[in-house]
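pinging the channel bc i need a second pair of eyes. not urgent but kinda urgent?? the chain im working w is below, pasted from the shared doc
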Amino acid sequence: MRIGIATDHGGFDLKEELVGQLRAAGHEIVDFGANILSPDDDYPDFVTPLGHAVAAGEVERGVAICGSGVGASVCANKIPGVRAALIHDHFSAQQGVEDDHMNIICMGGRTVGPSVAWDLVETFLAARFNQAERHLRRLSKVVSLEGQLMSDRRGTEVRSA
């Protein structure tokens, strides 16, 4: 499987470990960075290109890591076509794909150890969207919502909070 991975400084060490494990498991890896450990980097600079690659089908799935995983999840979900979630347990890693067609798993480099992270990634990658009618219906509503949000944003002035 072709997998994209991205992190900031908060998940740098975990990303490096996962890249090695994913390659050893036979996956092709597209590394969106960070490529050096820098406390001044920002997760959107790495997660955004990952999200666009997942949405465009350039990679099949994505792994996004930051310190807590929250920022990576928030950022990734701003990209239409991305369904990302912060995952800490096996049930959600599997169910998120099977029922909700999750395509990016988000984790915290400061909250999940390497062994647990690897187990979660393996579970995420092994899961398949089950395409049951109820899940297709729900996914259609999410896609529709993305379209409405894009229409609402056209011509709207962006204001800072």
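so The beta strands are 2-7, 28-31, 61-66, 84-86, 104-108. and The first strand starts at residue 2 and ends at 7. — does that match what u expected or am i reading it wrong
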